[in-house]
Design goal:
It contains 6 helices and 7 strands, in the order βαβαββαβββααα. It is of the alpha/beta class. It folds into 2 domains: about 100 residues, Rossmann fold (3-Layer(aba) Sandwich); about 40 residues, no CATH class. The strands form 2 sheets. The protein has a 5-stranded parallel β-sheet with strand order 3-2-1-4-5, sandwiched between helices. A two-stranded antiparallel ribbon has the order 6-7. Strand 2, helix 2 and strand 3 form a beta-alpha-beta unit. Helix 5 packs antiparallel against helix 6. It is elongated and about 55 Å long. The two termini are about 35 Å apart. The relative contact order is 0.11.
Amino acid sequence: MTGKRYYMACIDLDGRSVLVVGGGSVALEKVRGLLECGARVTVVAPETVPELLSLPVEWIARGYHPSDLRDRFLVVAATSSTPVNRRVFADAEARNVLCNVVDVPELCSLILPAVHREGPIAVAVSTGGASPALAQRIRDDVAALVGPRHADLAERLRELRPWAKENLPTYQARRDYFQRLVQKALT
């Protein structure tokens, strides 16, 4: 196997401070996704697309400074400047701040998958940075399979979790119970 292997995880960004460096259309796309997950987003860029200013973000109208990383959980560099992107990554690494430099996997401590959301369900597809276009195509294929009936089922199963924890004494018993419910609902 060639290439880096990534540990897949879902990150709780609710209320966490995230910095986006850059103010163009790519930054706008990243900001929308971050806000959708409850992040508190600050954008630092000398100028920005107008749509970004209509979102609930703090905009710092200047270039990036290393001090912008203070108290950040995550930084996304979405500029067209390779030197700026490299600097953001190096500064983030030095401070142990998670960093994604858009479309440059070698300058990332985390990469962002293509995501399909349906209610509480999120299906993420990653090619390990090899091809965002392929990840997006697979995500679109998955979207045709995972729909509202799955989201409704997920909500019903979420409601049953407290009962199952109280009445089914082991992890295995709960796992088997939920597997039977899913099998019944989806066949």
